[in-house]
Amino acid sequence: LPLRIAPVLTSAAQVVERTLYVHLHPGLNLGASVGQPRPVFIPPVVDVSSLITGLYSNAANVCAHLDVRVLLTNVCAQPNVAACPGTGLSGGAAANPFPSPQPLSHSPEVVLTDFALQDPGQSRLVTQCLQRYAGNCYVCKPGLASVLLHPQQEKEEPGDRGGRSEPMKTYSEVVVGGTFDRLHGAHKTLLNISCLLANKRFLIGVCDQDLLKKKVLKELIEPYALRVQHLREFLQDVKPSLQYDIVPLSDPFGPSVVEAQLECIVVSEETRKGGEAVNRKRIENGLPGLVLHEIQLLKDAHHTEIEEEKISSSSLRSRLLGTLLAQANETPHLPLVPYLIGLTGGSGSGKTSIARQLEALGAVRIDTDQLGHETYRPGEVVYNRVLEEFGPEFMNEDKTINRRALGLKVFGNKKRLKALTDIVWPEIALRLKQRIQQAREEGKQVCVVDAAVLLEAGWTDIVHEVWVVVVPEEEALSRVMARDGVSQEDAIRRLQSQWGTARQVEHANVVLCTLWEPEVTQRQVRKAWDLLQKRIQQRMERAKPHS
Ligand SMILES: CC(=O)SCCNC(=O)CCNC(=O)[C@H](O)C(C)(C)COP(=O)(O)OP(=O)(O)OC[C@H]1O[C@@H](n2cnc3c(N)ncnc32)[C@H](O)[C@@H]1OP(=O)(O)O
Questions:
Q1: How many angstroms separate the CA atoms of 242 and 236, rounded?
Q2: pTM value?
Q3: Are β-strands 291-295 and 364-367 bridged in parallel, bridged antiparallel, or unpaired?
Q4: Which end of the chain is least crowded, N or C, by CB within 10 Å?
């Protein structure tokens, strides 16, 4: 079987667009002579566990775009009613794991098999037999199609046949913990093997709040409720007979160190130490230690130099940088050209360096800080109004406005900052519109509006897309202090006058991060630019009058 995984997945990926459910039935005979095959129970042997790992690790390499889910309703420790509640078993060899078809979160539209036909004339009978078989196990879409795959068989190496059919020890209650952001093959392996090990209850602790603070690109972590929804949907498909309890974790231990009836914790090489710490705490709490069941870490064949070698959510998050995370809003009030990108991000996020890179790629860069500074020139409306509002002490000897002193006054003081921005923003907006008009007249295709507080100002409707640049707060603080020579307190006050990155990201169409080497940022910008060109192209196509 292991040799067939990659070829079967490769050929299935040519038919399937989104979800590929895997139902195991070793030796399934669809040959017409033996009559209609029935689903059978498979004992949870070591081989099944290796097969699950093999499936997810191959899927990550050969069909990474598919949501693969290995179904375990028919993989059960003891085929009796007590061990497999809800199966309607009466015991004995004829026990059916599917007394009624199991509903899945995505009803199958097509059933695939790698059953090898002995005779091409059998094909119709075999596909009919397969459809009936699938319909007995799962609730399928009406008109379920069936397809016979013809996977390219891989060469068998000597010694490949050595399977491990010894039974796995199973447990009444199993626990795991994790962030479970954007469920990937490694999460699914952990979850599937835990389902294999658990007979009654599966407790899942999901990191929340404080436990997320140190994570790479934490702003891109899916909200807790969404992660739980995805987990529940996956688990409900995989083994509906188990009781699932999903709880938020605000410390690394959660209920694992207080619930007496837990028997086993599933860990990876990386989290084994965490599992051992759980056991030390349990013993301190007068509870028996848990069996540590260790699973293999899945390798990520596509990892880049800033990513981990294992399949990880942080790598998946870093691959989202520069891509379109949320469709742009409809903007019929804006002219088609130039396409307007509102580039924003906290102080010290590196947005100006990104704006310059976009300029080098062909965009017109409009620096709104600069436009703001122009409005302070003596004789301008803003100049007079600012001095009226804040007093003559904010004037330098040469009669110019002392912006630095003004900054120290307003950052950290909401009321005073609002008084200032109420004066300056309308004037900046006016100048911005003039610049955009000028770019339009010059036939420019893309303008990048570099605006530190674009979202706070509610300027999202003057651009087509919002791009947000993020860095961790400590990094932003040290950059601001070093670059602008301000104290830590002043830097904090300035950052606190702006939205936090998580809130900014909620409004972002594209997110970029300047935390790593300059080449890494350049690659992100290039990717974002290339994808933007495609979107602009498609938009132009859509806007063409139909002939
Ligand atoms: C909607 C927009 O984004 S318009 C562009 C931002 N400008 C404004 O909001 C106008 C109000 N601000 C100002 O006039 C000036 O920033 C002053 C007078 C307060 C300070 O002037 P200066 O000392 O010359 O500082 P400068 O204008 O370079 O801004 C320094 C930092 O303050 C931040 N900043 C500017 N305005 C604001 C604001 N309204 N709220 C919070 N932070 C702000 C900027 O992010 C900038 O950091 P960055 O370059 O790392 O992004």
A1: 8
A2: 0.84
A3: unpaired
A4: C
